[in-house]
Structure formats: C-alpha cells, structure tokens
Amino acid sequence: MALFSTILILILLVSISGIVVRLFPMQIPLPLMQILLGCILAAFHVYEEQFDPQLFLLLFIPPLLFDDGRKTAIKDFVHNVREIVGLALVLVIITIVALGYILHWLLPNMSLPAAMALAAVLSPTDAVALGGIVGKGRIEKSKMEIIEGEALMNDASGLVSLKFAVAIAIGAMEFDILHVSVAFFVSALGGLAVGALVTWVYIVVLRKINKLTNNDSAIQIVLLFLLPFAVYLFAEHFLHASGILAAVSAGMTVKQSGIMRNAPLATRLQSESTWSMLTFVFNGVIFTLLGLQLPSIITETYVANQTDTSIELWQLICVVFFVFTVLMGTRFIWLWIMKHLPPAPFGTKRSLAFKGYTTRDLLISTFAGVRGAITLAGVLSIPISSRIPERYELVFIAAGVILISLVVASVILPILLRGKVILDNSQIDNELLYAKGYMAEEAIAGLEKMQNSLLLDSSDGIDNEIVNEVGSRVIGSLRRRTGLKDLEAKALEAENLERRMRLVAIGSERSTLYQLKIKNEISDETFDRLNLDLDLYEAMISEI
Q1: Mean pLDDT throughout 472-479?
Q2: Cα dist. 185→192, 476, 487 in Å?
Q3: Which of 479, 45, 62 is nearest to 235 (CA)?
C-alpha cells in the first residue's frame, strides 16, 4: 500500500511540475523543476521507499526507448547514420576508455571495471531534457535530427557497455578485449534482430486480434504498450541479447509496419495521446526520483565517506566538476575532429554534416549533450555488492554530473542560440504549401466524381440543387488554397451532405499524402503534421 501511495504521489508531483514551471516568474527547465520538487518532497520525508534497481531499469527504460524509436524518421536516420554512429558508438567508446582510465587514475580506490561502468552510464545524452531546456524549434532541424538520433542509439550503446562493465566488476565475467568486443556486437546485433522479428510476429497476431475485436482501441493500445517490455524480457532472459536495443528496434519496426497508420481514427488519436502522457509521466518520474533521492544520496555519500580514508568529500565534489569538464571537452574535441575529417574513400562522397558547422555550432552541439533520465536509471541499476564498494561514489558522481549538465546547458545554450536564425522552417513551410495544394487538387477531383455520381443517381433522394450547392461549397473551400472563395451553408440537409463530402475529401487527401511520403517528395515532419491535421479535422466532423 505504501508503494502504491508513493507512485500516486510521484505522478501527482510530475503533473504539478508542468503547472509550476509555467507559473514560476523565472524560466526554469522542466527537468530541473521536477528535481527541485522532488527535493522539497524528500525534505518532508514523504518518500521512504527504495526501488529495486533492476525493476527500476525495466519499468522506465524500454517504453521510453520504444517511443523514441517509434518517433524516429527512418529516412532522416539513414541519411545521418554516419554522424550518428560517430557520436553514438565511436564517441561512447572513446568516452568510456578515456574517462574510465582517468577516473581509475584519479581515484585509486575505484577499480577499473567500476570506473568503466561509471563512464558507460555517463555516455548517454538526453534529447528530452534538452527539449525541456531550449524549447521546440530553437535548434535547426538538421542538427536536432543528429542529436536525437545520437541520444536514441547512445542510450543503447552506453547501457550495453554498462552491463558488461558491471559483469566484470562483480566477477561474473573475465575481461578480455576480444571476447568483450565480440560479445558486445553479438549482444547489440542480437537485440536489434530480436526486436524486429518479435515485433513483426507481434503485429501479425495483433492484426488478427483487431479483426476479432472489431478494432477495439483499448485492446490495441494496451497490447502495443506491453510490446517494449515483451521484447526486452525476451531478448535479455531467453537469448541474452540487448533488451535495450530490442526496445529501440521494436519501436522503429512498429513505425515501418504501418499498423497505427491503418488503424481507425479513434485508435490513432487515443494512441498518440496515451504515449504522450506516458512518456511525460515516465520522464518526469525519473527526474522527480532524482530529486527525491538527492538528499539520501548526499547523506549516504557523507556517511560512507567517513569510513573511506582514500578521498575527502570536497575532493569528491571536485571530481564531479572535473568529470563534467572531461565529458564536454571530449565531446567538443571529437566534434571538431569529425568536422575536419575528409570524405570516406568508399561509398558516399558526401562530407559529414559537421563540415559546415561553425565554432558556435560545435559549442551548441557540445552543450546539447546533457545527461538525464538514462544516466540516472543506469547508475541506480548498478547492484549493491561487496565487489563494488565504491558504488556510493558512482551514484554521487553521476547525480552530480546530471545536475551540472542541466544547469550549465540552461545557462549557456540560450546564450549560444540568441539571435540565431532558423532557416529550416522556410523549407517546411514550402513543403506544407505544396502538399496542401496537391492534396486539395486530388480531393477536388474525387469530390467532382462523387457529385456527378449523385446527380446521375436519384436513389438517395437528395435534390440536385442541394448536391450542386454543397458540392460547390466544399470544393470552393478546398479551392481557397488557390484563391477561390467558399460558399456559405444554407440548411441542415446541406450540412449533412457537406459532412459526407468532407469525409471523402479527407480520404482523398490522406491517400495523396501517403503517396507523397512514399515518393519521398515530403519529409516525415511534414507528413506527421499534415496527417495529424487530417485526423483532428476528421474527428471534428465525424460522428464517432
């Protein structure tokens, strides 16, 4: 009962944080506000429960990564795959090795595997926390696509590396560079394959269930929500592959399968609302938990440090700032190196996107690498073991780096982005105008066919004058996009016929929109925005 009450309090606190951040006179990023509210709640000793670390990792990470994968534009991801791999894999490996050895040298009492585990858990960046700091649309779309793709994949690479580092630290496996490297790639590729295969089978079964239940929205949404947990558990416990990458792969596969695209309107709208609510709550709970546990982390660190003669508390605080500096420095240097890399001698001759980055852009991309939910979830998943006596140091350093990265990004990024003109929006606006015009033309053609059919067929009992009137009005409203005027409604019968015609138009526009997407004439962002507009418009005029 206590745990249930705690969960309700956490959800309430997350909801309140979204309100308080708008009422607060100063602009405070949502993640920092959630941490602050968690600290306030902890001061009143409302939260006393300790989550099982493995349960913590299982509960929050698979659905969050699944949703990130589900939102990922495959075309943009493939286009930026070299930049994403450079940041999400190569930079992660460089960070783990460099920071691991630096920490081992700096803190002699910290074993090398434990230092590597901390470096691994500090590698993932958090695009959601970044969005809470800078807001939507402040960073160019092309740069944000790379940052989001990096955040998606380095979550997986960092947590997979963490799993191996912890296994070595507790003595569950021996360190051998070749064996660990092979095991890493087998685990990663196995996770990707398991996620895709299990999801395809899952979707086939789900389609049959939908037929049996007449597309019951609740059943489909709940079963899809269970999918990331299913692939995670199947990959981890049955095939010993990466459950994290399985969840990412499952999300991408669901997007490609089109199961939600072909679902009824009510299901699509409810699904988007449900996932939006869940990701907001899960991300918020993680940051609130950081705030709730921050006082106990500081207390436990102080108590443990009293018996640890190898380092003073003030030195540990200095280590936190030093680690953050190393992370940002390593990231900036690697971005600078990638900017100056020549085109690959094989494959595409296109230079990396970083080639056109200015020093200001490099700094924005550097400080955009904030640490957040994944880092906290990962460090708390490190087991309490006598083989890892320095665990209190790992948790303290990770929590400190999260806080510093959020605060520094909140101060520096708005300064770096001040006066920066976003050019990508004009391209999106042009795409929107082009797509809307083309969709309107196709919709008009479909409506004219329907109008002619109604005029020839008198079985509906609709007066021809009304058919012409409503048809002209609906077609006229579509032609407004080319400068023609709409007609005014005159009667209830006309309004009902107009509704039918508009539903036909929406169907034609949606079909045309899918064709434009298939032909790669519009971006995924344009497709998503227009498709949502059609869904909302259809919901407004339909009798659901």
Answers
A1: 70
A2: 10, 59, 63
A3: 62
